[in-house]
Amino acid sequence: MTAALAERPAPATPRPGDPRRAMLALARTEGARLLRHPAVIAGLLLFTGPETYRWLTGRANRFPVLQDEDWSTQFLALLVLGGGALIAANLGALRADRHATTGLYDTLVLPPAWRTGAFLLAVLPFTVLVAVLTATRIALLAALPGSAGRPDPAELALHPAVVLLFGAAGVLLARLARTVIVAPLLLLAAAVAVYAAGLSSLPGHVRWLLPVALEQPPMPVPVALTSRPSGWHLAYAAGLIALVAVAALAAAGARNRRLVIVGAVALSVTAGAGAAQYLPVGDAVRNARATAAERPAEMQDCRTIGSVTYCAFGDFASWTGDWDAVVRGVLRAVPAEAAGRPLVVRQRVSTEDRMIDGRVVTAEEQAAAAAQWQRIEPAAVTVGTRWGDGRSEMSLAGLVAYQIVTGEAAPAHIPVCGARGVLVAWLAGQATPATAAGLRAADATSWGGVPFGDMQFPVGFSVPDREMAAVSALLRRPSGDVAATVARSWTELTAAGTTADRAGELLGVSVPPLPPVEERTRCDG
Predict the structure, then answer these.
(1) Does the keyword Acetylation apply (predicted)?
(2) pTM of the model
């Protein structure tokens, strides 16, 4: 037996484990656990749920502007997707501390720095999933017949970049603070900072240093007019991701030359891209903005349908057929001699925010701005770059009706009272089901009168509540019967001096009594 034992080969010397293979194995396990984490699942539901509900209920906007849609969900992605990654990654990296098993990790083949690398890699599957969701969403929007413009890949890529950044931050926090409360506090601070910077009227020097920048024009604009430094901001976010990952590895005890080099490169990229975000707007964009504001016809394509010509920026040319449906709805209830007059509908944009809080505009300034606006093309009806929300359809219908009834361009946001106000609002409301819904929504939420026209434009008008009461009664009656009455009394209804009471008599509806003199609104004729 001794001889047999002597002939048995000696056991092989144990081979050291491969930390790379172990790190990847741990990353796969932790990545799967992160995807199943309640915070991540809740974030996915909160990100996709509202839009899915709008699609299923038919309330989704069928006319999306893709250059706005690509960044409009970035703050939501930061809050729910980035927040889910932050909390789940932080809890995963703190699992040994939470379960009081830290000492057992010293017996494993994987050193702390390699375990930290595994937790950083574990965020990648969720990042890829967010990239797929973002691409799918924008692809579905782009496939709609009413979609306008084109998305910016850098804006879309920021969604998964934010998730990766917050996931890496969760791992870093786990190495710096052995408590779970720090991660939610960081999420709260980031969300408040981004939202507050977006609400402030200060220049964007602060907001572009945050992960997401809530900076938007007063309305959607053609792609040629956009000025968000999306590419530089994505590079800035990528630099932040690398810096946070390097800091997490260093906090876990990693010390080598490659880590220092990566950190130095990441710092240079972050600083350079962050500074490049503040470079002045290029000459091409400035020239395009000036052309769009002063000579829009040079950037537009026109299409004539019957007696109406529609001119739109190239990104929005697909909307002209839907504009025509609204215009035809107005003309259908107008006598033939008025409906056959040539009409031009021209799309306009405003790159200056006229709705800044605290800004006071006098009546004289409004009139001057409207006159300057109308000098571009005095006889054209203005249509904006929003569509599909009911109120946009209502506003176009109202501006068309105003020009047909009065023979004049839209005024400088003054009330239109009397029979003209009743007739214009009824023509707008009966044009299509969308204009009727938009008029009802505006009437329910407005005070003193219903506004027609985009408030970012210096032209538009409102119809006071007294006239709107008569309009509501008319819209409850068959439109064909009202149209026949309107045709018989067209001359008197369109006269400048015809009162609302007289319009009620002609159309067979009651009109509320006049309010006290001190409560009356200044009216247009």
Answers:
(1) no
(2) 0.88
